[in-house]
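Deviations from the work plan: none for this task. Representative record:
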Amino acid sequence: MSTPATARAYGTEPARPVAARARGLTKAYGSGETTVLALDSVDVDIMRGAFTAVMGPSGSGKSTLMHCLAGLDTVSAGQVWLGDTEITGLRDRELTRLRRDRIGFMFQSFNLLPTLTAAENITLPMDIAGRTPDGAWVDRVIDTLGLRDRLGHRPAQLSGGQQQRVACARALASRPELIFTDEPTGNLDSRAGAEVLAFLREAVDSLEQTVVMVTHDPGAAGHADLVLFLGDGRIVDRMERPTAEAVLERMRLFSGARPSPGGAPDDVLRKS
Amino acid sequence: MLKATLRGFLAHKGRLLLSALAVVLSVAFVAGSLIFSDTVARTFDRLFASTSADVTVSPKKQIDTALPSGETPTVPAALAAQLARVDGVAAARIDAAVSNITIIDAHDKAVGPTTGGPTIATNWYVTQRSPVKLTSGHEPRGPHEALLDKDTADKKKVRIGDTLTVLAGPGSFKVDVVGIATFTTTNPGAALVFLDTPTAQSRLLGTADAATSISVDAAPGVGDDVLKQRIADRLGGRYELRTAAEQATSDAAQLGGFLDVIKYLMLGFAGIAVLVGIFLIVNTFSMLIAQRTRELGLLRALGADRGQVRRSVLLEALLLGLAGSTLGLAAGVGLAVGLIALMSLFGMNLSAAEMVFNWPTPVAAYAVGVGVTFVSAYLPARRAAKVSPMAALVDAEVAGSGRPLRVRAVVGALLGAAGAAALAGCASSTKASTASSLLGLGLVFTLIATVVAGPLLVRPVIRVLGGAFPAVFGPVGRMSQRNALRNPRRTGATASALMVGIALVTGLSVASSSMSKSFDQQIDRVLGADFVIQNANFQPFPQEITERIRATQGVGTVVRQRFAPVRITLPDGRKADTAASGYDQRLDDVAHLTYAGGGTAQALAADGLAMDKTYAHDHDVRIGDSLPVLFSSGQQARLNVAALTDMNQGSGGFATEGALFMGLPTLERYVPGGQDAAVYVNAAGGTPADRLRAALKTTLNSYPQVQVRDQSDYKKLVHDQIAVLLYLVYALLGLAIVIAVLGVVNTLALSVVERTREIGLLRAIGLSRVQLRRMIRLESVVIAVFGALLGLALGMVWGVAVQQVLALQGLTAFAVPWSTIVAVAVGSAVVGLVAALLPALRASRMNVLAAIAHE
């Protein structure tokens, strides 16, 4: 993997502008003998207007990558940019503002404040910022996600799928540069999960949003434009216009032949 | 199961810390007050037992009232010789001791305790029982020599050779200090002056033929009781006879009153701490159980039965109680040491080394500590036992408590109605005793009702209170308001702790400001004199002061007031012990009295008596009745009821029971040798009040025990006395607030832990630390203000009810201390801010990622 080929960033596609990028992104936990590298000098570009999935087995560093790109976690080495802003080295206050104004989040569960209604949850980031939501846009998001008749409900009165749709709407409502979502379908049944993925797809296609999704579900990754495969803290492969079957196949290969430094099987690196 | 419980207890010990603190405070006050009063009791038991004579012969005391006539009851001095001849008497000595004197130094400064202890002058003789011994100088000999006790001499820097003036009842006299006597036992806080026996008799009692008591020593082999019986056989029932043991008990009882005040005050503190602590502990356990629902569900799923779960929670409470009680006991010892040190400031030298630690102290400490914790944890434990095994499998619902509040509504409404009925009954009652018991009942019922129904009030009140939050503070305000609303039980219980303290202080300040206002009105209405000269407590002062006042330039009318304890037999058969006043003839010039029958002239005529109209009516007394009156001197008289006053002051306030008064000559006839308790002075024509005041001040310079007061000074004196009561209340409130703040901190801290993921989410989507802190602060403020409002409302109701009871005693005015109430409301918001400091800091320091991942 330390061949010259990996010096070029995965996901690079010069035709489209970059929403976020990382160079030499390294994240280490612990120190000395017990150091664990969660991310090992990762270079990545996230294209604007695309739906990017990040896949990998547990412990591959996919969530850490997302957290570092989103400014939720600090990096040990390397640089991260959101648009033209370098976010490595920003203080907590600036990071908070950046997350609030330029990034949308959707987690696996517990996305909503139980005390606020669906509508209040959706506009929360803008309320916190003291900005007036763009009414027409929010309406469009709400209608796209089919939440019109659920706006006055509290999270406890919504189903899991509905809750994730509200979370999705919240992530979209402020029209952020980038939406990060971590296993958004992890807690949902397959029908509700498919619905949420369809909405994310819709957000990219019709609402021209940029979405980065961390998942270990090949079916979910099949909805993306591009899948990045992570293993042991490095990006080991990419797949454009994936299908669930192709992703599943790729994952099988991974689990059958776990990459070892310097000795990854050829087919792992083969482009699809 | 035991292991799981112990692990659980240790794992949550941080979260139990504040509850433990509440237990420690309650136990510390209980233990401290017990240790202190035991120590004091033993010290004085020893002192009195070792200093009392085998048998003491003293004048019979017939009537006990707080207002003495100022005359010193005596026995004939010749009695000593008579007693010496009784078989079995080794020695009989004359005692000539008075405690109502004042001593001043060359600069007219009082030499003696400034903290309420008596200044005692007595005759000097040395026996084995003397509490003092001569340590320097020589014994007093002759009319101009005296000893002073060492404590007083040191404190007031008096040395041998200094000249002091003794202001005694019969007149003041100068003495030279010729020696210093040192206490060999505990000094109970008095100043002592010793004279030789003839000087003490003539100067203090006014005659060499009198003694205040005779101390009799038994011959070897003669028991005190036997000797007492022999003396009783010889003297008959004319005198009071006490053995050493009886005398010690009686002395201790007199001192006991003062010590009881301290004891009850401390127990009051303990009570408040317990009451408020209960809310805190209940809340803590409820929250811990809510947070551990899944864990408890898992235990249940693994086969633990309900009893085991309940016992495991109760065992945790037991451990908390034991730990808290042990620490509290230690803190109580510290508190007792502090109190003992405080007492030495008051001149009472107790030795902390001799601290008494009786078995009831630890028993009471552990009973309170463990009992309170156990009782408080019982309901949460029952709730824990009801957790279903399914809870382990589904996501724990921590957001809100969905259980309906219907039972609370019903119980609260019933208790509230009962309390309101009792208070209404108290307000409309015309008998003070009925009104008081209804008041007590009403207070308890309304308090419980408010505590029970508190959670029901959370929604409506906080909606209104926090209604402006979203507008003022934006989404942060909205979230705070919703957070305060999300678990009404928790918010209610947290606020209740604050409510109790604030309700108490509001009720008492309404009552006390009503009292102040009533007294002001009475002073305005009744007091007609330019100046009143008296000491602070209506204690009598020597006659020469009155004479000096009369001789002062610019003094016009002078009316003296004296008290006499009397036992009056009323037509309905009741015998009332009270104090009657005696006034000079020109009473109308210095007071505005209104009468329902008769007038000042009739009342002050020979053997005349004035009585309050209502009192007379209650006891079937009519004008012209002749009532038997027993005076403290032992003289029996029949006085004619010649006037009925209509002062609308019932039997309370300034007035003594029945508001009896008579002419000073009448009083003097039955109680000779009394002292004036107050002198009312009007300026002579043409003398401005200012000049008279200056002249009086000069005159009275060498009599530091009395002060010159005009109407406004007099009001201030009364206000100050009421204020002393208020300060105690404020101290109680302070403690209640400290614990209530602990409760708010506790609730917020546990809420922050509970909402870790929520906070992580908020931070992830862009809530800044400042905003997060503000959110928690606002929640805290809204809870605190909610508690304060409940407390103010409840306290107002209490205040009105108390005022109604006071009105029955003539204190009819009603006043609301608005400044106090505004201060309480504002203060509660500050309390909220302070309480939120740590939880907010903790929340804002949370790691965003760890918080999101938190289970």
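The CA atoms of residues 559 and 587 of chain B lie 6 Å apart.
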